[in-house]
C-alpha cells in the first residue's frame, strides 16, 4: 500500500459498535441479523442534526429561529467551521456540502423543538504536511461525542498525545473506544498522559485506525495539557461531522437536548401545580422541560448524587428563570426501599440517604402512594465536610404516575 492509500485507510472515521455476545444474540434474534447490523452501524455514528428545545416561558419558537438566523448573519455560530446556514436555503449555489438548515420539528406536540441540520461524514486530509509525521491526540469517547456536536477538545477529555507537541501544532484527533477487559467489564486501556509514538510499534497504533474524528490546533503544549485542570486543549478546525456549537448562544432561551428526552417529559404530561420527583436529574434537561410544561407552577424535586452536578441543575434553572425546581444531593439508589412485612417506613442511617416505602393504598387513579422519609444534604453544602453539613428532614407523600420512564435516566414521580 502506498503512503496516501495507507493514510486514507488509517485516518478515517468508520467505528464499529461492539456488543456483549449475549446482548448481540438477543437483539439479533429480536430484529433479525441484517436489521440489527444496520441499527448497530447507525448507532456508531452521530446524528446529523442538533435538536434544540425552546424555553417557551422566555421566548417563542419563531422568535428563537429568527434570532438564530440573525446570529448567523452577523457572526456565524460555528466557531470558524463553515457549516451553518440557517433558515431558507438561499439560492442554488448554497447546496454544497457544509450547508445546514433549521427546521421546526414536524412531529405533533413538539412545536417547541427546532432541528438544525448538520453534515457528514466528511473525508478530511490529515497529511497536508507530508514532510512531517502527523501529531496526534486521543480523546475519551465522551469528549469525542461532544466534539462531533460542535464542541472543542477540553483538557479533561485528552487521554494521550504525541511527544513534543507545542501550542499551535496541528494534530489529528482520534477517539479511544472501550473494549472488553479481563474482568469481563469494559476499558479504554489507555493511561491518561500516554505518549503516542505515531509508528506501527506503538501499542495504540492499530486500535485508533478508523477512529479519527477531526483535526485541530493545540491551544497548549503537551505538558500543559496534562498539567492544568481546565481549558481548551485543541481548537478543532475540521470534523468528520459538522454541527454548530450552541455554547453561550441564547442562554436560558434554548437547551440542546436529544429528541427522546424532550418526548419523555411530554409523555409524563406534568400539570401546573403538581409535584414531580426527578431522581437522576443533572444537568437538568428533563427537569427544566417538565418545569416549562408546568409553566413553572408547582414543584420539581431534582436529585443527583453529585454535588457539582446539583449545582449545574441550579445554574440551568436560574438561567432559564425557573423557580419551581428544588435540587438536592441524594443517591437515588439509597432512596427506595421495599415495604417491610409490617408495612412500616424504614429510616436510613446514612445522612444523605432517603428511605421510600411503596405502599399498597392509593387515593389516586394513576398509581400507588409512596411515602418518603429522607434526610438529605441541601445543594451548596458538602456532605463530606461535617462543619458545613446541614441535613433537613424531608417527608412528603409521593404519588407515582403511570409514567415511570427510564429513558436517559429519567426517573420522575408525580408527588
Ligand atoms: C444521563 S444523566 C441524566 C440526564 C438528565 N435526566 C437530563 O435529562 O438532563 C445521569 C445523571 O444521573 C446521576 N446519577 C447516576 N446515578 C445516580 C444515583 N444513584 N443517584 C442519583 N443520581 C445519580 C449522574 O450523576 C448523572 O448526573
UniProtKB/TrEMBL annotation:
<comment type="similarity">
    <text>Belongs to the class I-like SAM-binding methyltransferase superfamily. RsmB/NOP family.</text>
</comment>
<dbReference type="InterPro" id="IPR049560">
    <property type="entry name" value="MeTrfase_RsmB-F_NOP2_cat"/>
</dbReference>
<dbReference type="GO" id="GO:0001510">
    <property type="term" value="P:RNA methylation"/>
</dbReference>
<keyword id="KW-0808">Transferase</keyword>
<protein>
    <recommendedName>
        <fullName>SAM-dependent MTase RsmB/NOP-type domain-containing protein</fullName>
    </recommendedName>
</protein>
<feature type="active site" description="Nucleophile">
    <location>
        <position position="411"/>
    </location>
</feature>
<dbReference type="InterPro" id="IPR001678">
    <property type="entry name" value="MeTrfase_RsmB-F_NOP2_dom"/>
</dbReference>
<feature type="binding site">
    <location>
        <begin position="280"/>
        <end position="286"/>
    </location>
    <ligand>
        <name>S-adenosyl-L-methionine</name>
    </ligand>
</feature>
<feature type="binding site">
    <location>
        <position position="304"/>
    </location>
    <ligand>
        <name>S-adenosyl-L-methionine</name>
    </ligand>
</feature>
<feature type="binding site">
    <location>
        <position position="331"/>
    </location>
    <ligand>
        <name>S-adenosyl-L-methionine</name>
    </ligand>
</feature>
<dbReference type="GO" id="GO:0008173">
    <property type="term" value="F:RNA methyltransferase activity"/>
</dbReference>
<keyword id="KW-0694">RNA-binding</keyword>
<keyword id="KW-0489">Methyltransferase</keyword>
<dbReference type="Pfam" id="PF01189">
    <property type="entry name" value="Methyltr_RsmB-F"/>
</dbReference>
<keyword id="KW-0949">S-adenosyl-L-methionine</keyword>
<dbReference type="InterPro" id="IPR023267">
    <property type="entry name" value="RCMT"/>
</dbReference>
<dbReference type="GO" id="GO:0003723">
    <property type="term" value="F:RNA binding"/>
</dbReference>
<feature type="domain" description="SAM-dependent MTase RsmB/NOP-type">
    <location>
        <begin position="184"/>
        <end position="415"/>
    </location>
</feature>
